[in-house]
Amino acid sequence: MVTVLAAALMLQSDPEFVVVGHSPVFHQTRNEMAYIGGSGSHAAYIRDLSSGKDTLMMRMQNRNLHAFGWDHSGEDYLAAMSVPEVPPRDFLLQDVVETKKTEDFDDWGELYRFKKDESRKSESGELEAGTLLAEYHHGTDGYSLGPEGMIVVWDLRGPWSPFGSKYLGETSIIDTKNDRVQVDVPAGQMHFSADGALIFICLDGGAGLVSSKTRKQRTLIKKFEGVTHGAISQDGKKLAYVIREMEDEELKSRKVYVIDPAANEKKVVLNAPELLISDLTFSADGKHLYYVVFDPSEKKPVEKIYRIAL
Questions:
Q1: Model confidence at 156, in pLDDT bands (50, 70, 90)?
Q2: I need a surface site. Which of 1, 74, 161, 172 has the fewest CB within 10 A?
Q3: Overall number of domains in the chain
Q4: pLDDT band at 158 (very low <50, low <70, confident <90, very high)
């Protein structure tokens, strides 16, 4: 049975929770949410969801933050950000060099790890501390923590990494335990359950579920069906995705589905063709689905984080 709720009603389903920001990430055990806040992308915050208190964790002067959150320990932090200067020409992708579109050079980024007590200041664009894990080309949609120290970053396209001179595809797996980068992974978003047993992959407009142990694959949505973003709950019992439905080359609807893969049941929790929806994330307990909305019809549109009770 599919249940459809109007966008206006859904946006008012939790009127006490609206945050100006994007890229929400949840701590696995504490009731905390990290996010990139404000009308720009220069500051990272952690919100105590019990008290509603925000703590500024990082502010950049000459960089944009793409994502911020915790690493596997739950104590140290990961931050994906733009670089203050264009990399040397030797680092540029061949297709970018050939087109000579210098405006494309703005989206270089770096993934850093910061120890809990390390400085996260940047007065001139240079960081005072932190460990560089990877450098990439184009902005990243986010990251996911896999098993055994694995970090998956989406949209890594740069040909360089600190673990060797290898080409990083649109999606790369950074193996921090063995200091290497695995590049033979499909492009798209890869979301891990907390134990790393399940991987929810959104690729080429479709989506599927993969067992990391057996590599058994289950197709949930066929390719080119309009899937744009996805999420998996920490226990792996719920999946969510955004799907864009077209008709005669025009946008017909933009819906958010939540799936119970074990029962093979799904429901529509949001139907909002007029809104741009991204950054789906389940709360640590799986009781809420958080999502980011950008409404281009607003006079001064900004990204806002909403949540849905499931």
A1: very low
A2: 1
A3: 1
A4: very low
Torsions phi, psi of 294, nearest 5? -120, 115
Query: Domain for residue 268, yes or no?
Result: no
The model's pTM is: 0.80
Domain that residue 185 falls in: 61-190
Residue 205 falls within a domain, yes or no? no
Q: Residue 229: what residue type?
A: H
Structure tokens at 74: 């739950």
- Paired tokens of 143: 């990251």
Give Cα 85 distance to the centre of its chain.
24
Beta 227-232 vs 217-221: how paired, if at all? Answer: unpaired
Exposed / middle / buried, residue 17 (Cβ in 10 Å: 0-12, 13-18, 19+):
middle
Mean pLDDT of 170-188: 68
167 within a domain of the structure (yes/no): yes
Residue 24 lies in a domain: no
Pairing of strands 77-82, 108-114: antiparallel
25 Cβ neighbours under 8 A, 6+ residues apart: 33, 34, 35, 67, 68, 69, 70, 142, 281
CB 47 within 8 A of CB 61: no
Contacts of 310 (CB under 8 A, 6+ apart): 238, 258, 269, 286, 287, 288, 289
How far is Cα 183 from Cα 171, in angstroms, rounded to an integer? Answer: 8
The shares of helix, strand and coil residues in the chain, as percent rounded to the nearest 5, are: 5, 50, 45
In the predicted model, what is the mean pLDDT of residues 280-292? 93
Helix (H, G, I), strand (E, B) or coil at 105: helix
